[in-house]
Amino acid sequence: MNPVETHYDRNAEREWERLERHRTEFAVTCRVLSEFLPSPPGKILDIGGGPGRYTIYLTQQGYHVQLIDVSRRCLDVAIDKSVAEGIYLPTPVQGNALSLPDRDPDADEDYAGLFDAVLLMGPLYHLLDEADRLTAIREAYRVLRPGGLIFAAFLTRFAPLRDIAIHSPAWIRDYPNRFMQLLETGQNPAHEDSTFPESYFAHPDEIEPLMAHAGFRMELLQGCEGLVAGHEDLVNSIDGELWTEWVEVNYRVGREPSMRGASDHLLYVGSKPVPPPHEE
Asked: Do residues 85 and 78 lie in contact, with contact meaning Cβ atoms separated by under 8 Å?
């Protein structure tokens, strides 16, 4: 079992709860999904969706969502949560973003060009090599219909350094080589003390060229935390109209190119081009 699969098997419930702690990330992401997705019903593939937070949310909106994840335990949690919500999910599939299934396991449909949208909001966090990231993106491209949309999430290069500054500032002195590798390459290979193994943190400037290399046209690059990355606890604890106002602030400010490195998560929205009509 690889360290990423082991990590999510051990932390499946915590992964479900993560978006309760980080409500701004979830709320802003849902705003972007609502803005760009076609009206339901439609077919969505949630690649690396873990315990199914977005799968369940989008199913509740009326979409047909297929969940794929490397962690069997996360998929079991997704089933349990969907049953508790009283909703039906297609059979979740244990799989890898680098090699998606060829066919829908329930309907026996060819995956190629089947989906109206793909969520790739997790796998790119754990692919250290650019070639692997490109493979995962191309797999998403393969299963999208022409004109379909990809929502791809990236952890930003500076997010772990903010976390280190908050929780363990001496880490940069205790592990200088790991610190420089993280700062210069974004790579954080698994170590015995890793709390987020085999992780990759993207520089904001690399995202659009990478996605374009796979064939996508960028529609939006959204900072999911807006203004509050690293300062979100109090905002995430409020409710009512004030909460709604802060979601709107972070949704708007998160689109500022100057703020991209200040967010922990960047959400890329791209479209698969429609080929020109065939001329006889």
From this structure: no
